[in-house]
Please model this.
Amino acid sequence: MTDMQKRSLLKIAALTAVAAAALVGCGKKEAPAPVVAPAASAPVAKAEPLKIAFAYVGPVGDGGWTFAHDNARKALEKEFGDKIKTSFVESVPESADAERVIRDMVGQGNKLVFGTTFGYMESMLKVAADSKDVKFEHATGYKQADNMRTYDSRTYEGAYMAGVIAGKMTKTNTLGVVASVPIPEVVRNINAFTLGAQSSNPKIKTKVVWVNEWFNPPKETEAATSLINGGADILFQNTDSPAVLKTAEAKGKRAFGWDSDMTSYGPKAHLASAVINWGPYYIKATKEALEGKWTGNTGAWWGVKEGAIDIVSIAADVPAETQTKVAEVKKGLADGSFVIWKGPIVDNTGKVQVAKDAVADDKFLGGLNFYVKGVEGKVPGAK
Model:
């Protein structure tokens, strides 16, 4: 083949390729580019649960104060599920040990800490000052900080309703109170119990024995026995164990449960139980913490109105009219139509503490340090 023939063949091949390309452009569509599936997004990391710790002054099985707090802790777990993780330390003394325990709670990553007794106040303040990213809730105290607030229940409302029953059921007109620590909270309850009893029976007198501890069953038993020997046939308590009710059962007298329903500890002696439900407040506080709405430097004081206080398991032998009166008081406390601390209120020295028709405010109640008329003796440490 000559060079001329080779060049002719190459030229023809080139023209054929150009024609083929033109046909593709004019008469056919290009195949679409393959679709590349986007890479699977990484799974969203699950939020870590809010860690919540509780410091208890007594054992969870005390049947009273600490038992009520622990029931509320369990209500929290039921309400929020895996959004939270709770823990507790029981029988934490109101001493330097409290600070150690609370610091350890912070060290374990807890971001919401509940201290459930008055004596933890200073310890919690110290730890709060060093742990600004942690929220602290102190029960029954009065000191606050940017990351610490207080909460309490109007236990005196339950005490008053118990008193209404006691005044009707006593045969000796003498009531006995086993008291724990002489702070305004306890003095309020003694006075409210007496005022409630006097509303049913003006002849009532109340004797008080102080044990200076929240939970000490042997001391509580000894105090209850002393009151019975002194003529009291109905006992009331501001201590944390069922020892008072058990003593009344053993000696054929009557008594009340306190903080939790104590019926089972002395069914024959039991007249009713004045109980605290901490659940509503604990749920509110936790919800605020989870939603970033929690604020310090505030205080809450809840009672019958908020569902925090009640009187339950009233004995069958309490007269119907007395039960009706208790129900009326409860309704009045709930809607604000009944006020316990309305004057005239006179102390046991004859001094008018609340004038006629005046109503004591929370500031007055927060510093209350006298016995009302009808209570024997003097508040320890009062001037």
Notes: The chain has eleven helices and 14 strands. The longest helix spans residues 3-27.
